[in-house]
Design a protein that fits this description.
Elements (H helix, E strand, L loop, with lengths): L6 H9 L3 H11 L5 E2 L2 E9 L6 H19 L4 H8 L22 H9 L4 E2 L3 E3 L2 E11 L2 E2 L2 H31 L2 H10 L16 E2 L3 E2 L1 H7 L13 E3 L2 E3 L8 H8 L20 H14 L2
Antiparallel strand pairs: 1-6, 2-5, 3-5, 4-5, 7-8, 9-10
Length: 293
Amino acid sequence: APDQVSADEAKAMLAASDGEKKAKDYYASHTPEFNTEEKVHARHILVKFDAKNSDSVKAAQKKADDLLAQLKKGGDFAKLAKENSDDPGSKAKGGELEPFGRGAMVPEFEKAAFSLKPKTLSDLVKSQYGFHIIEVMDKIPKTTTTFDTAKVDIAKKIVAEKKSEATMNDIRDLLKKGDTNAVDKFVQSHGLKWESTGPFPITATTVPKIGANDEFARMSFRLSAKAPLANELVRQGDKAYIMKYKAVSKEAIAAASAKPAGKGKKGAPAAPTKLESPEEIAQNLDYQRSQDA
C-alpha cells in the first residue's frame, strides 16, 4: 500500500533516470485523482404531487408556499423538513444531502442549487418529483493538485504497485511448487493470516466470507489433505486469495460414501467407500445422483 512506502523510497524512485517520466505519465493518465469538481452542500424539502392531477399540484404548491413563508420568517429548516418533506432519503436528516456535483441531480434542482449563494434559500423549484425548497449550506470550489505537489504521493503509488507485483509473483511461484511450509512462512512474514471460510456445499456459488465466486468454490473441491494448496491465486474484486484445504464435513463424507439409493444401472460399478478429497466427494455425489432411479 502507498502509505507503507517511505518518503525516501519515493524520492529515490523519482531520482532514477526514468522516475520523473513515469510519475508524469501517471499524473497525465489519472487526471480525476488530481482534480475535484465544484460541489454544492445543500438541504431541501420536497412536496410531492401527482402531475396528472391538477388539484394535487395545486395542493402541493400551496403547502410548499406555506413552508417557504415559514422559512423566510426564520423557521427551523431541519424541523420543518423532518415534519413535512416527502423525500425519504433526506427527511430524517433534516433534508440534508451529501455534497453533489453537476449531473447528479435533475436539471431544475441543479440549476437552482448552483446559482444560489451559501446560506440562502431558493424559491419553489418544480421538478418531476414535486416542489423543492432548497437551502445551500456551503459550496465546495473546484480544486487542482499540481504535479509538483502530487509527485511524491504518485511515486509512493508506483513503488507500492511494483512491490505488490513482486510479492504476487513470489507467492505464485510458491503455489506452483506446492510448498506448504514455504507458503506458511510467506503468510507469516507478510503479516497475513489464514482465515476459515466455514463450511459450504459443493453446489455453492457463494462462499462464506468471500462472496459470489464460482472459481473459488470450484477450486476448493480440488484440494485434499494430501494436496492442501491451490496452485494459483483466486481473485475477488481487488483482492487475491491463497487457498488451503482445511476439512470436509462429516455429513458430506457420510453422504458421499454411502451406496447409491434405489436401483442402479445394470452393470454399473459400485460406489467408492473411501474418499480422500472434496473433489472425490463432489464427483461421487454426482455419481450417486446419476445412479438414482
